[in-house]
Design goal:
By secondary structure, this protein is an alpha/beta fold. Helices cover about 40% and strands about 20% of the residues. Strand 4 and strand 5 form a beta hairpin.
């Protein structure tokens, strides 16, 4: 029995190598050998004789799936440079459509006369390595974006808080003047100022929501009830637009979340839809329950599988331009750049932030046969029954009173506006510019102070630290906490410590009067 030759042994070893081997004759590239691994990587065997051109018949592409330049192919480079060359950026598209990423080494074979007779190219499958690198790059990009959004959010939150204080001062003075104004024209002007401050306050709420500073106590809420209670407001702000509602039954569609933030999501999405259709257009608001087996591929956010409540807001406008679809959730990106209704670019960024904080996702559906856009919000369902939905209270006259109130606020404008309003209601006020001064005043005059109006966010000594120090002086101290933020986790911590009541800014003189009277009545019991 004949023993295998050295040539046969070398060929057998080449067939079993975990590296793809391809050998071609120089200079025209006639293919003379390819092993099994090469055939597996390429998805084919020998392709026959080639005079020129390898990228197309072999499906050789760049990483971004474009045709690989012939001048950079390993065979061509090894032939021209006369040395071993390495290519790290090749992707092979097989005949069945699957792709494999490879690293190649091209080595020229030079005879004794210094002539290149062949080129050997080794192919290494590095698909997993490339995918891991791609995943790392995407993770780094997400981290960078998250850090950037956090920085912008911090800036936006700080601006919003200070802006809220200015709005509050204007609103409080305007409402105080309006309550005692008898001239119809002057009263109308003051009410207009109040409307303007309300619109400005809505902008600060958007900034605070975007800044992730508005995470509130979760309540179990029926989303349909929230939409229904907003229907009149939505119709009044959508003049000329047909607004349709298709809501789930009252005992369904329950989510765990914050009512004011969910109202903000609805207002922003309906406002965008209204602007997209213009007068004569149609906007549909629908709520429904859906069990998600998988999260929709195009959805953005933090939703997972399971039962969800879906909020759909659709319009029959022109739709979103393809070049804008990937940017609509970016902060400060807007297509409304002209006219009185030009946008701030915070609406959808805020919506996404709120939806993510509620454990949900949002999907933009523009495949409605050219009939507009649908925004689809997925919020996790709650198994608990919905809490009663409060109906809006009618306008009331500011409730006056007597007693001495210590007003603590580091902002001079806010402090003056609050003391002026309280004094107009009949109260005597003492002002403190911060926590340290307030403690000294209370230590000296605590016996004559009936209640404290305390700002939560102050430099040096926070509202929480100030309250704890006051409580050490007087365990029964009565405190009304005031803040530009709504009932978030930090506010709730202070309330849990024993603060009597909370009032968010901006508020009217009527709301301030009611809150102070409530605190004083509780203290008198």
């Amino acid at each position: 029995m004949a023993l295998p030759s050295d040539h046969d042994i070398i060929l057998a070893l080449g067939e079993d190598l975990p590296i793809g081997i391809w050998v071609a004759r120089a200079p025209n590239g006639e293919e003379v050998y390819a092993n099994k691994t090469f055939a597996t990587i390429m998805g084919t065997g020998l392709l026959g004789v080639h005079v020129h051109g390898y990228a197309e018949p072999y499906g050789i592409l760049t990483r971004d799936k474009k045709a690989y330049p012939e001048a950079r192919l390993p065979f061509v480079r090894a032939l021209q440079e006369g040395k071993v060359v390495v290519n790290d950026d090749i992707t092979i598209r097989r005949p069945d459509g699957t792709c494999v990423d490879v690293r190649t080494f091209g080595r020229p074979v030079i005879n004794s006369e210094g002539v290149i007779t062949h080129v050997i190219v080794a192919f290494f499958d590095i698909t997993r390595e490339v995918e891991a690198e791609r995943a790392r790059a995407e993770s780094d990009q997400r981290l960078h974006l998250s850090q950037r959004m956090e920085a912008i959010g911090t800036l936006a939150g700080g601006i919003a808080h200070d802006f809220n204080n200015l709005i509050f001062g204007i609103k409080l003075i305007a409402s105080e003047l309006a309550s005692s104004e008898s001239d119809p024209k002057r009263k109308e002007a003051l009410e207009l100022i109040d409307d303007i401050t309300e619109r400005s306050a809505a902008l600060t709420r958007s900034l605070l929501g975007f800044a992730r500073r508005g995470k509130h106590r979760a309540q179990t809420l029926c989303l349909s009830d929230i939409v229904s209670s907003m229907s009149e407001l939505l119709r009044r702000t959508s003049t000329g637009v047909e607004l349709e509602l298709d809501l789930t039954a009252e005992d369904r569609g329950v989510v765990s979340g914050d009512q004011s933030q969910l109202e903000q999501v609805i207002m922003n999405l309906v406002g965008n839809a209204r602007d997209a259709v213009g007068e004569g257009g149609r906007v549909m608001i629908r709520t429904r329950d859906q069990l998600l087996a998988t999260v929709p591929q195009g959805a953005i956010g933090t939703a997972s599988t399971g039962p969800h409540v879906v909020l759909e807001i659709s319009d029959n406008g022109a739709g979103i331009a393809p070049e804008h679809r990937d940017r609509i959730f970016e902060p400060y990106f807007t297509t409304k750049t002209k006219g009185p209704d030009r946008g701030t670019g915070l609406g959808l960024a805020t919506v996404l932030g709120i939806v993510e904080l509620h454990g949900g996702s949002i999907e933009v559906d523009t495949s409605l046969d050219g009939r507009g856009t649908m925004m689809r919000v997925f919020l996790p369902s709650s198994r608990k029954p919905a809490e009663p939905h409060p109906s809006p209270s009618p306008s009331q006259i500011a409730e006056g009173g007597t007693g001495t109130l210590l007003v603590i606020d580091d902002d001079a404008i806010v402090r003056r506006a609050v003391t002026r309003a309280l004094e107009s209601l009949g109260y005597t006020t003492i002002q403190a510019t911060g926590g340290a001064e307030a403690i000294e005043i209370y230590r000296a005059r605590g016996g004559e102070i009936d209640a404290v109006v305390l700002d939560m966010v102050m430099p040096v000594m926070s509202g929480k630290a100030t309250y704890l120090a006051l409580r050490d002086l007087d365990p029964s101290v009565s405190v009304l906490l005031v803040s530009g933020y709504a009932v978030n986790e930090e506010v709730q911590q202070i309330l849990d410590l024993g603060v009597n009541a909370f009032l968010p800014k901006p508020h009217s003189i009527e709301q301030l009067a009611t809150a102070v009277a409530s605190v004083l009545r509780a203290a008198a019991r």
